[in-house]
Write a structure and sequence with these properties.
With 305 residues, the protein is α+β, with helices and mostly antiparallel strands. Among the domains are: 40 residues, no CATH class; 133 residues, no CATH class. The strands form 3 sheets. Strands 1, 2, 3, 4, 5, 6, 7 and 15 form an 8-stranded antiparallel β-sheet that branches. α2 packs across α3. The chain starts with 9 loop residues before the first strand and ends with a strand. Keywords: Cytoplasm, DNA recombination. It comes from Klebsiella pneumoniae. One of its GO terms (cellular component) is bacterial nucleoid.
């Protein structure tokens, strides 16, 4: 399995223990194989490149989550369940009750689980101890929630606060309008990239994507914005990083600068150094965006253990 560098991100402010303390906690949820009837499991595993359960990097540390999941397509489950239901109904001469049908569907899923293909993936998690930023390398909110729940499970409690950008969707829309109208400070500290996705709700959702240099399609974008379209996500560049910023303050297609290394540098050293550089640059992006988009100090949350 390959451990991807920082490509997507969902970010939280969180207070986690020191590197020494957190390593002891992570050992409480080690990897073990899925059982026959287990659908999914997640665990903390050593970094495949550094070999460390918690890898120290500049101003923080990195951990790796392994997620194993049985792949059972719903149409396969329903085909098997419907065949069973049909046989039973033919034998007894009457329709089964809904509860009985649901039990058969669940039983079919459990039986298929025993022979299902297992999909395994590694998820990179970076934590900046100076900024208290928890960066989960995923665009999937469910994965981010899973990682948070795992940390709560092993640590006992994790104090977190949500990065709350008030009305970010309209904020991005207004700033893009101002930028296209010539206001240089609309995205102060950032350069607007070539990609932007707009949408509006009419009788159905309409989506427009622009991937040309925005100066060549300024009039088209402005026309869309003036007819009710709003920004879903857009490309920005700054702090040595390019990325797509979404209306949920999630990040996609993150591209950081690769460092140059000597032939004498081993893979573990290179990985630590690159991960530390990526986190440093990306945290600068987070802080600048919070300033630009008027970040509000959110309410503290203490997830239950």
């Amino acid at each position: 399995m390959k451990l991807s560098k920082l490509r997507n991100a969902i970010v939280y402010r969180a207070t986690l223990p020191s590197i020494e303390a957190v390593e002891g906690h992570l050992q409480e949820l080690p990897y073990s194989e899925l059982t026959e009837t287990e659908f999914a499991r997640a665990s903390f595993v050593p970094n495949p490149i550094t070999g460390e359960l918690v890898t120290p990097i500049t101003d923080g540390y990195a951990i790796v989550v392994r997620r194993d999941e049985k792949i059972i397509p719903q149409h396969v489950v329903m085909k098997e369940a419907n065949e069973r239901i049909q046989r039973i109904e033919n034998a007894c001469g009457e329709k089964l009750k809904r509860a009985d049908r649901n039990n058969i569907i669940q039983d079919a899923k459990v039986q298929l689980c025993k022979q299902a293909f297992i999909k395994s993936s590694l998820i990179l998690v970076l934590y900046n101890t100076e900024e208290n930023l928890l960066i989960i390398n995923s665009a999937n909110k469910n994965i981010a929630n899973l990682v948070g729940a795992m940390l709560v499970k092993v640590i006992g409690s994790v104090k977190t606060v949500t990065i709350n950008i008030s009305n970010i969707k309209n904020g991005l829309t207004t700033r893009l309008k101002n930028h296209l109208d010539g206001e240089e400070s609309a995205f102060a500290g950032f350069e607007v990239g070539d990609y932007v996705q707009l949408s509006r709700l009419a009788e159905q959702k309409e989506v427009i994507r622009y991937s040309a240099e925005h100066t060549s399609v300024t009039s088209e974008i402005l026309e869309s914005l003036n007819t009710g379209f709003i920004v879903d996500n857009m490309e920005l560049r700054g702090c040595g990083v390019s990325f797509l910023l979404t209306d949920k303050f999630h990040f996609r297609r993150i591209d950081t600068k690769d460092n140059d290394y000597s032939d004498d540098d081993d893979k573990a050293y290179r990985w630590r150094h690159q991960a530390g550089t990526d986190m440093f640059q990306f945290c600068k992006v987070i802080n600048q965006l919070c300033d630009l988009l008027a970040y509000k100090e959110p309410e503290e949350q203490k997830p239950a253990a």
